[in-house]
Design goal:
globular; five-stranded mixed beta barrel; 275 residues; 9 strands
């Protein structure tokens, strides 16, 4: 057996043994400062990453490092309370390992979230952006021998983010009285924040928000034909006309993400409830 597949199956078997028959329908990836959504999961089963064979450990700020299974919006879910990043030194095989594991566990949908800088001048701190498309400047996680067990060599990426789920999110948000933005998410390697010249470049090529994650997980999910819904919390204004004393600060990003977490949680919960 391909050692990559063996790692996936070993981890999935362990997680399944801890789920006591729970069959997740939806996988959720929670980004910086957004792990609070996991607190809304009912009948939760907590599985620390450090206990899962072959699993990496989250080292990023605001990422607790647990799988949390249970029910959200009345549907069986499994959530990543913290993700893995390329900038932590992990290869893409490990960055995306949890998505493969959740696929083996039986998820039918993937919901992803992140904290992002608002490149679009119309975006303000605290805005929620539904991801419509992306621009990838991270290594593609499908490079290398294809894992035929999960999908084709050349998967289509024409519609990386499911249109029906996006429409449902706007309907839910309207019912809750929340405003949503929509736009294109750009992902770079990090961990350094981007320069003003880079922000200008991202805007010129069509990006609305910028971050350091999410896209590898989406590519792997689409490789396995899993419909994806993505949302960014705008945690800083990523412009190229800063005040002289402005600095990007990771702690400020987590604070801004926490402030928006309740709104994002409500939207995720209602959209999942409608599935």
């Amino acid at each position: 057996m391909d050692p990559r597949v063996e790692r996936i199956m070993t981890a999935a078997d362990y997680v399944a043994s801890r789920l006591n028959g729970h069959k997740p329908m939806v996988g959720i990836v929670l980004g910086s400062g957004l792990g609070r959504l996991a607190e809304m999961i009912e009948d939760k089963i907590v599985i620390p990453y450090k206990e899962i064979p072959g699993f990496p450990v989250s080292t990023a700020i605001g990422h607790k490092g647990n799988f949390i299974a249970g029910y959200l919006g009345g549907k069986p879910v499994i959530a990543m309370q913290g993700r893995f990043h390329y900038y932590e030194g992990y290869p893409m095989e490990l960055v995306t390992l949890p998505i493969r594991v959740m696929k083996v566990l039986g998820i039918q949908y993937l919901f992803v979230s992140n904290a992002a800088g608002g490149v679009n001048y119309d975006f303000k701190v605290g805005d929620l952006m539904v991801i419509t498309d992306h621009i990838n400047h991270l290594p593609n996680p499908l490079v290398g021998p294809n894992m035929d067990e999960f999908g084709p060599r050349f998967p289509d990426m024409t519609r990386p983010y499911d249109k029906q789920l996006r429409m449902r999110a706007f309907e839910v948000a309207a019912g809750l009285g929340y405003e949503l933005k929509s736009g294109v998410y750009f992902a770079g390697t990090g961990p350094s924040y981007e320069t003003p010249a880079e922000y200008k470049y991202f805007r010129l090529i069509g990006a609305d928000a910028v971050g350091m994650s999410t896209i590898p997980e989406v590519i792997v999910a689409r490789h396995s034909d899993i419909p994806v819904f993505g949302m960014s919390v705008i945690t800083n204004e990523a412009h190229d006309d800063y005040a002289e004393d402005y600095v990007n600060d990771g702690d400020d990003v987590v604070v801004a993400a926490n402030a928006a977490a309740d709104r994002m949680t409500a939207i995720f919960s209602k959209v999942i409830e409608s599935l």
